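Re-running Transcription factor to confirm reproducibility after the cluster update. Everything else is unchanged from the original entry.
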Amino acid sequence: MSSSSGVTGSEQLNRLSCKRCKERKVRCNRVMPQCGRCKPNDLECVYPVRVKRRSARPLIDPALSADGSNAALSTILDRLQRLEAQTAAGSSSTNGQSILTPSGDGSEVSSSPVAFSTTGHESSALTPHNSDHEMDAMTVLKDAVDQVQELRKRSFGSTAITSSIDIPTDLAKTWVASLLDRRIIDLIPDIINLPHIHVDPVILVIYYSIMYHGCSLKASNVASTSSLGYMNSSYLGCLRAVPSWEREASGTMTDLIAALFTSRVAAEFFDYDLAWKMFKHACEYCQTLNLHKLDSDENNTFFSEAKCDNERRGFWEVIQIDLFYRLILNTPPVITNDIWKVNLPWLDPDSDPLPQGMQTIAFLASSRVSLVIARFFAMLDDPENTTKPEIVAKTEDLCREMQQIFTEWQLMEWLEGAQDNEQDIWVVADVILTGYTSIIYMFRKMALLNSTSPRPPTTDLDIPDSPIVEDAARRLIAALNRLLVIYPYGAKRSIGLTV
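Result of re-run:
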């Protein structure tokens, strides 16, 4: 064994990690009698006893074997009785809409048209509702999101990837003008279809990402069906340009912007694998540009103070995404896993005055939310937090602190009264949705404490009951309802990662 592990050849190793390291999900050097993590803290180190593997399950159910005919009949009878009970419950739930069919003994039995699903699976009407078998909301929601994710991916198969992309030029110009002020992007709607004009793939990625977000704006002024078609076309154009851009990418600031754009669009399209891949590219480009060393003595890049504040703000937004992905998608830390030294913008005495307006307030609030999430992960990694009740209590304190952020800045009140400033509305809504979603997922992380799987199945019973979670869920729904009132079409397409 290498010397870096802190284990000499004379020390005896256990075949399994100690219970404390396994519960904390950290690496254990397995040294007997105390591992390298328990010994410095003077903690009791207990190694589990390897359990003998169970024998393989028999291919034939013993109850249905030849020498167990009575047991087999009993099993079949039990199944029939359960099926009859389920059918009766399904029939009664139709509230008199069932078709009554006379049975052989003159009685009437229900033959409901919804008793069985046409897909070959049992209908939900067959499931009796009683206090002993309540619906698991987490399982149902997870299954629904998985189905949406699969359908979204399937909609961009080999047939769709070769179809034409037709976004009206005047509409594209409107979306560009509503989002940013860049002359080269303004020119693309007029030149993109010209045969003798070549547009760099990285610009195409940014352009189609802007088109995608433009579908959510009031400026689009199109019906929901048409807007959905433009959204699909924009994402399709982005997917086509990504491979060529990846081959040419060298880590420029333009590459960083394209990677962040694509990561967000892919996440909203439920393509979390692509979103995670693009975000890792973005983190690589941040390090190539030395953005993680803006306030380090090693930084030899000289920016004006105003430009440096812009770079600081951009890097902190990458930090926020890293923490949010880690919380929601259970991904490992990327940019936060390495050493970085970047102050918050506008703290230097030579900086320009703090910009006014809701976008600055939203950035400051989101930065505080990110710091709370970072402390949450630090708390989970702290070996002194050993019991689940202790971790839950500290998580509740952090969530209350996050709720206080929204109260201090009155973000929900501002959103309720907002009317026309579209840019500010989306920025504030993003902070609110991110914050309250984070509260819910911080409690969902409790299900991972005793699991060795990176993505274990989560049920209602895994999540500790807390009024904080209930309040966060209600405020999340209220924010979404407000967005749907302001933007009936756009908000529906902008909550993929939140769900």
